[in-house]
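Is this the right way to post structure tokens for a design question? Let me know if I should format differently. Anyway, here goes:
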């Protein structure tokens, strides 16, 4: 149940120097803060998701998809953590900033032909995801526990998130 990559992770193909903690902290939020987590835009090249409630598995999942599919996902430039003064871990995912409008904002103004093209792209992306070989059990990447509120607990060492060998053990845990 280990990570699928060596952590900390730093990509070799970074478009500029990675932002410092001070630059990240001073950057504008892209979305509202949620549970000790921020998502910020840092300069022209980077989006950083960071905080105590960020899981580096998200970055590993993006690296996994980039390696095994042609589904468009942001490049991951760094995955690392620091320990705060309170001995609390703080996690950072530094990824590619994609300059674009959201589909929800564009959709009403698109022609039927443009909408059909987007739907075809999404259909192909989902097809690629479905063609990835399934693991032998229910788990997160690398055989780690599932990350979901159903398996969340405030108890230290609580590991009811699997991995689960079969449907019955998964259902029992839920």
């Amino acid at each position: 149940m280990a990570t699928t990559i060596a952590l900390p992770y730093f990509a070799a193909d970074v478009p500029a120097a990675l932002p410092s903690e001070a630059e990240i902290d001073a950057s504008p939020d892209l979305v509202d803060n949620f549970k000790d987590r921020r998502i910020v835009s840092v300069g022209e090249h980077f989006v950083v998701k960071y905080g105590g409630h960020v899981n580096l598995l998200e970055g590993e999942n993006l690296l996994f998809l980039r390696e095994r599919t042609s589904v468009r996902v942001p490049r991951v430039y760094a995955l690392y953590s620091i320990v705060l003064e309170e001995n609390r871990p703080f996690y950072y995912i530094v990824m590619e900033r994609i300059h674009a409008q959201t589909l929800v904002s564009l959709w009403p103004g698109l022609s039927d032909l443009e909408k059909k093209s987007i739907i075809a792209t999404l259909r192909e992306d989902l097809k690629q995801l479905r063609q990835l070989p399934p693991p032998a059990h229910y788990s997160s990447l690398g055989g780690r526990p599932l990350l979901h509120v159903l398996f969340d607990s405030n108890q230290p060492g609580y590991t009811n998130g699997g991995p689960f060998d079969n449907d019955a053990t998964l259902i029992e845990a839920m």
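Format looks fine. Someone answered above. Worth noting: Strands lie at 9-10, 37-42, 46-51, 76-83, 89-96. The mean pLDDT is 90.
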